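Dear colleague,

Thank you for sharing your sequence with our group. We've completed the structure prediction you requested, and as agreed, I am returning the results in plain text so they can be pasted directly into your records. Please verify that the sequence below matches your submission; if there's any discrepancy, let me know and we will rerun it promptly.
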Amino acid sequence: MAERERGGGGGGGGGGGLEAGALPPDVREGLAELELELSEGDITQKGYEKKRAKLLARYIPLIQGVDPSLQAETRVPGSSQTPAAGSKQQKARSANSRDERFRSDVHTEAVQAALAKYKERKMPMPSKRRSVLVHSSVETYTPPENHPAPPDVTTGLVGQHPHERPQVASVRGIPRGYSSSILETADGVPVSSRVSSKIQQLLNTLKRPKRPPLKEFFVDDFEELLEVHQPDPNQPKPEGGPAAVLQGEPLAVLSNWPPSLLAALQRWGTTQPKAPCLTALDTTGKAVYTLTYGKLWSRSVKLAYTLLNKLSSKNEPLLKPGDRVALVFPNSDPVMFMVAFYGCLLAELIPVPIEVPLTRKDAGSQQIGFLLGSCGVTLALTTDACQKGLPKAPTGEVATFKGWPRLVWFVIDGKHLAKPPKDWHPPVREAGAETAYIEYKTSKEGSAVGITVSHASALAQCHALSQACGYSEAETLTNVLDFKRDAGLWHGVLTSVMNRMHVISIPYALMKVNPLSWIQKVCSYKARVALVKSRDMHWSLLAQRDQRDVSLSSLRMLIVADGANPWSVSSCDAFLNVFQSRGLRPEVICPCASSSEALTVAIRRPPDSGGPAPGKAVLSMNGLSYGVIRVDTEEKLSVLTVQDVGQVMPGASVCVVKVEGPPYLCRTDEVGEVCVCSGATGAAYYGLVGITKNVFETVPVTAGGAPISDQPFTRTGLLGFIGPDQLVFVVGKLDGLMVVGLRRHNADDVVATALAVEPMKFVYRGRIAVFSVTVLHDDRIVLVAEQRPDASEEDSFQWMSRVLQAIDSIHQVGVYCLALVPANTLPKAPLGGIHISETKQRFLEGSLHPCNVLMCPHTCVTNLPKPRQKQPEVGPASMIVGNLVAGKRIAQASGRDVTQLEDNDQARKFLYLADVLQWRAQTTPDHPLFLLLNAKGTVTSTATCVQLHKKAERVAAALTERGRLNVGDHVALVYPPGVDLIATFYGCLYAGCVPITVRPPHPQNLATTLPTVKMIVEVSKSTCILTTQAIMKLLKSKEAGAAVDVKTWPTILDTDDLPKKRVASVFRPPSPDTLAYLDFSVSTTGILAGVKMSHAATSALCRSIKLQCELYPSRQIAVCLDPYCGLGFALWCLCSVYSGHQSLLVPPLELENNVSLWLSAVSQYRVRVTFCSYSVMEMCTKGLGTQTDLLRAKSVNLSCVRTCMVVAEERPRIALTQSFSKLFKDLGLSARAVSTTFGCRVNVAICLQPNRLGKLAEQGTAGPDPTTVYVDMRALRHDRVRLVERGSPHSLPLMESGKILPGVKVIIAHTETKGPLGDSHLGEIWVSSPHNATGYYTVYGEESLHADHFSARLSFGDTQTIWARTGYLGFLRRTDLTDASGERHDALYVVGSLDETLELRGMRYHPIDIETSVIRAHKSIAECAVFTWTNLLVVVVELEGPEQEALDLVALVTNVVLEEHFLIVGVVVIVDPGVIPINSRGEKQRMHLRDGFLADQLDPIYVAYNM
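Please find the predicted structure tokens below.
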């Protein structure tokens, strides 16, 4: 039986304590059959569970659908006990062992019941790398004995397996009774399915979020309309009459009441000098010092004299009356604080008490500094001990804290004070309207404000408190609260002096060591009044062992200072339960409500004053979320139980006004903000006139708009209502209010719900912060909790899923993000609580460092724009007519006309490149065409015209003789970048063979690079491979055999030592349309496509480039590109031979050993024209960013460069080209030199921006500089171009891709109707030119789709021209600039590849735009790539920083994509730098990445599945 009890926690184990043997045989048979079906995959897990539940329904004594893991926990081991005994034991245990603020057994039961209504929804657990689990931040952590040692994080190696990660099985719980063979299959799932099954789970959990019916929209400046939340027609509405203003009893007129606080102090100090005023305790609870009224008076007078007369700077007194002074005293030193406070008042200075700054970066410390600065504080008073403990600067002085003004620190210990002369007396005036002190408070956003309290208000507060609490002279009061502010200050420092009371001050440090200390002091000092918070009552319950010998019978008043927290009621009840037997009378407990602005708002009167009986209200949470009070009867789960906070203060009136908008009075059953009108409230926020008026000078009005009083009211920041018997009830604070989709939720209520979720002990010391962040125009709830050091991954995830369900069930609201951080890592407020605004700040800036994150944007974000419905397209004909009517021209553009360009070069006579080479070998045999550089910058090989020709002849001879190849055979050239590659290319042409250049495999990475080589060789139907001896060995090696079948290679010839033979005759192609070579390349979407280039197209390409770039034999260009495909291949192998210019060849691979190689070569050879790729540009920008001075010292000078062209098949990367230009401007690079090019598979060179500097540019033949336009990113998603101003929201800069080459015509066609489009319309770029490729040789995998790529015709307009479709989206725009020909210049803007675009929510997204947003989200994001899987958006992020930052990124990535793209991220994958694969052109291979992710090969640091 015990064995079975333990197993009861599994996911499917809903047997609920049934013995299998107890079931009838037919049911058992049915179950077995089901198990079989499930294991064979004939039935889904969900279907299985449904049918199984049906079979067992009659035999299960429990509620259907209780979370089985809950059952397991609520059962008691040793099942012989009766259920009743079990539940009692359970309750008792939870009361002793929980340590948090918001205890409520009723609420706990409600949460458990709410969770029981949920079936365990399978959520995919995030997967995490081992090292991330090892968090070092917890000092208290000792690893449990039975766990394996954590991995060695320093080396990253775990045992023998460098990438071992905990196997997170995709099936979380396996029903009991499974045979072991099934278990094996459940765990031994093929690797690739692990990720996919999680994504499947994720899709299963993403049910459509509930949406209210929608009628209106925010008009977000455009057609992407965010939906506005509509009021729910069934929501509860207030039905009560208008509420009245509540008047407190009048202030009694006392004959001997002192005219001011200082008068009272003077009176007691001189008439009762021996009377005790304040007793301070140390951390052991011993009384260390008792301050008498005589001592307080004399020391305050001494301090006042010293401050006014003994402090000077530049012979001027440092202070004058009315100046503000900071009081910096630790919580353990109330005596010194009191002397300082009254000393300042006597000197007519204004004290500003603040916390002791412990480090230079305390939470919120900067804001306090800002407050001190704005108050003009220059002096800080402190004690000797405290001053010694402050952080010091190297000079030995107190360090200046971040954001603080420069302060003079003055120690007020006796030896530093001067004795005043006999005739010096401090002025003791009547209390007037001038400021007495300033109390600081931190607002919801974290900014610190100072509230000014006048002498008159302080006096009135003392008067009202004395009357309400019935204080009498010489009473004893114990105070646990912070004496620097709030109730601790009002009762323990001000009112106590008014009434000559004796205060026992209990420091926070003592409470931490001994939570019972305050009760012991009440007992030993026979205190009449105790001032505590509900936390202190709760803590004292935990220390029951020592409670036996205490008595609380002396208390006539136990003031609960945070009685306004709705959750205080359970602490009060629990405390009474335990201590009633020790003399505590129930009516002694007096909750009160206060706020920094209005001081004490209401307090329950002590029993002898004859007030009404205490009240309790059980309110519906749903009603409260609409701001309406409904006493709850039916729905026991989601209720809030609140106690009253007593009656209004004497001499005050209170009303309740609407929270938003003008201050209309609320109805009687409506929750609003409590406002107070009395002489005892704060006066203003220091220095902030605007918000002061809103808060301190509110004039509440009736529904008709009439003011209810001629006196202004002060807003308290408390949300509440006035209940029966004129009692005030508070249900929350404005600071904790979160308005989510029109409904209000209180942070404290959400915290209480989370704390009631089992296991209760999961949260470390109950430390939970709840706040809201604004994402996409609405508040989103974020919950951050510290988890216990020993919590496992599974525990965390389980707890998180339950918290989500509990909050959803009780508050009917979704949590946007739930984060767990290691124990002790949240920023602390001065008294040990959580500093909420600082936590929120860290969350938003990504420095919270959670160890677990669960985001649920799918359930929370319900105001996304409606998915776009594609409209039935307008036909092309009507489009043309429409454009004509609108005066729009058809978007087409062309380069210069080749036929009119006189080209007197001899080469023009030749149609075939082989002929050109032979002709050059005869006419200029020794003219050097190629220089190849190595990493050191030395020339390793050169080729003159004749050398190249001779080498080509030898290769041709070898092909025909050794290789026995026929004309037209295909030959794969597998060479590293170099002269051999070029020579063998021409050797193939000489022999009449068709060459295919192939990048050689990487010797260190054969497994991934060799299959690509093999594939190209096979797909291109090569009958022979030409290569070097070294690569030939590699292709046949044993290691290669592990990656591919080496037996099936065609003939491999090495060309290292060829005999000096020449071919009998060089092959002449029968016609220019004969195939010259094949150009193979893998597209970014992972498609291997080879295009056919005819001899005619090849020479047309060379000619076009020659004309555009003005290349001729005396020119020299530098090429830093890969020579295997596209324009890179043409510039390496073809152009120099055709135009005769000299090419300086710099293989990009060599830059890995010497980043400055390319730029140094350009400088050394004074190159005017150079080509590179984006990856080269990026290497230079990253690698040489800090070395420009070093390069200048090596005399690198780039002023020779007239044009540097980036060869690319993508949208120009403006940010990169600009940062490159800026960076190397110091080395003389002209800002106008860098430009981009555009080519694609169907035409490798469509745009090139030629020489933009020098003579030609001045003559205007080069054409205008490329222009940049800004388009609206939201319009692009709808396939529209909308030009906007630079810097406008959602704007995206696009740079023209360069000038269209001679002989090239470009038109923009509609992607679906294939009709021509107008100027500035987005469509597919189509191109027509003599150097278009003639077709695909093969497209591996998708032959049928690509048939019309090369022979498309427009469906309307010019239907004769044959165009090639580039597969890229873009638009043409006529600019105001003029071309060389005097025509207006047409600029071509490339937006992106159609294959790459993501179709989401009916809109078209370009991955690069989402990636740009993500990279901006956090400084540690090095690179990012996105793709879709099923219909989820997956974002892969490279983390360049410590692994503890990994989880910070999840929320930031999700936020930025929601805000800027209106998309919900499905999966966030955090990986190491360098994981995102990038091809030689510097383009991201997103499809490879996707395959790697799905096959679980990325070794991610963390994978978060957003719910």
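Summary note from our side: DSSP finds 44 helices and 59 strands in the chain.

Kind regards,
the structure core
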